[in-house]
Amino acid sequence: MPVVNRLADFQDDIVAWRHDLHRHPELMYDVNRTAESVAERLAAFGIDEVATGIGRTGVVGVIHGKSNTSGRVIGLRADMDALPIMEATDKPYASTVPGKMHACGHDGHTAMLLGAARYLAETRNFDGTAVVIFQPAEEGGAGGKAMVEDGLMDRWGIEEVYGMHNMPGIPIGAFGIRPGPIMAATADFTIDITGVGGHAARPHASVDPVVAGSAMVQALQTVASRSTNPLDSVVVSITVFQAGEIFNVIPETARLQGTVRTLTPEVFTLAQSRFRQIVESVGATYGVAVDLDYMPNYPITRNHPDATDFAATVAADVVGSERVDTSVAPMMGGEDFSYMLEARPGAFIFLGNGDSAGLHNPSYDFDDDAIPIGCSYWVRLVETAMPT
Question: CB neighbours (10 Å) of residue 74?
C-alpha cells in the first residue's frame, strides 16, 4: 500500500504551509502565530472540533470517521516550536526572525499532520475518532507534559497515541523504530564553584576554582567510563565552563553546566547519585565550596511493544518492509513525547530525512520529499487501526 495518491495531489499545499511556518519560527510556548494558523486550517478542513489553549498554546483537532461502532480513539501528535539558532541556509523560505529557526523539523511535522488531517476530514474512511495534537514547547519546555496535565488524554478519551520525528541519516522513504527505549531520559545541571580569588602571580594565596572545575570536568566522565556497565548507555557532557575575566586574576568563582542522558531508570538513578558524590568530593579535595543544581528533565521515551509492532506494519504498508528498520539504535536525545507515552500506550517512529545537516544545526532543513510519506503513514495508521 504505497503513498496515498490524494496526499501526493496536494503536496504543494502542504509544502507551502511548511515554508510559511519555516519563515516564522516561534519558541517554546510562544507559538501563538503557529497555533492560530494550525487552528484556522483545521477549521477550514471542516473537522468536527478544534480546541485551542491546551497546555497553554497547544491545539487539538477531532475528526470522526464515517461510523463509530468501534468507539476507538487514536491520537496523532506533532510539535510546533523552533529553536534559538541563527539560520545558515540560503533557502528562499529561510527564517525571517533573527536568532530563531526551525532547526529540528517541527515545521515539517506540523505540516504533515495538517495534511493528514485534511485528508481524513475529506474521506473519513475509518470507524472511530482521530485526534490530531499540535504541541508547543518540545524543545525544553515540556509542552507534552503540560498538555497531558491539562486533560488531553481524558478529555477526548484517547486510547493510544503515536508520534513521529524526522531523522537525518535515514534515507527518504524509510522509517526506523524499536520497542522499548528509543530516546533518552535527560537531566541538566549547574555547578557553582566558589574559591578565593587573587593575583595570578600568587596562586598559593588563592583557592583556584578553575583548577577545581577542570578536575570536575575530568572526574565526571568516570560516571560513564567507570561507574556504569559498558553495555549501558549514558552520556555526561559539560557544555559550559565560565570563569574569570582577565589574564592576571585568579577568579573567585566558576560555573559548569551540561547534561546527562540515560536509557534505563537504574542508570538514571546511578548517574545522579555518582554525579553528586564526585562533585562534592572533588570540591573538598580542592578546598572550594560547591553548589550543585541537578535537574531531572524528560523521562525515557519508551515505545510499547504491541503499538511498536503495529506502527512498523503501517510503515511497511507505505514504503515496504525492507525500508523499515525495526531495531533502529536508540538516540541519546530527549523527547517530551515521553510524557504522552507514560499516559497512554503508543509508539514513536523516525521518518527518514535523507542526507541533510543534523538536527539543531544552523544548516539543517526538513526535506519536503518526505512529506507525502509522513502524511501517508498518519493516514494509514488511522485507517488500519480503525477499519470501516
Answer: 21
Q: Please, what is the Cα angle at 374 between 328 and 28, to 5 degrees?
A: 85
Q: For residues 110 and 87, what is the distance between their CA atoms, to the nearest angstrom?
A: 19
What is this structure's pTM?
0.93
**Architecture of the structural domain at 5-182+301-385:** 3-Layer(aba) Sandwich (3.40)
Q: In what order do the strands lie in the sheet with 160-167?
A: 49-54, 58-64, 129-135, 73-79, 160-167, 346-352, 175-176, 324-325
Coil vs helix vs strand at 252: coil
* Burial class, 370, CB count within 10 angstroms (exposed 0-12 / middle 13-18 / buried 19+): buried
Other C-beta atoms lying within 10 Å of the C-beta of residue 373: 24
CA distance 7 to 379: 9
Q: Where are the domains of the chain?
A: 5-182+301-385, 185-296
As a whole number of angstroms, the distance between CA 101 and CA 107 comes to 10
| pLDDT tens by residue, 55-84 | 999 999 999 999 999 999 999 999 999 999
**What count of other Cβ atoms lies within 10 Å of the Cβ of residue 92?**
7
Residue 6 pLDDT level (bands cut at 50, 70, 90): confident
CATH code that applies to domain 185-296: 3.30.70.360
Check if the beta carbon of residue 188 is closer than 8 Å to that of residue 333. Answer: no
What DSSP letter does each residue of 258-298 carry, written as one string? Answer: EEEEESSHHHHHHHHHHHHHHHHHHHHHHT-EEEEEEEE-S
Strand partners, 62: 49, 131
Query: How far is the C-alpha of 66 from the C-alpha of 309, rounded, in Å?
Result: 26
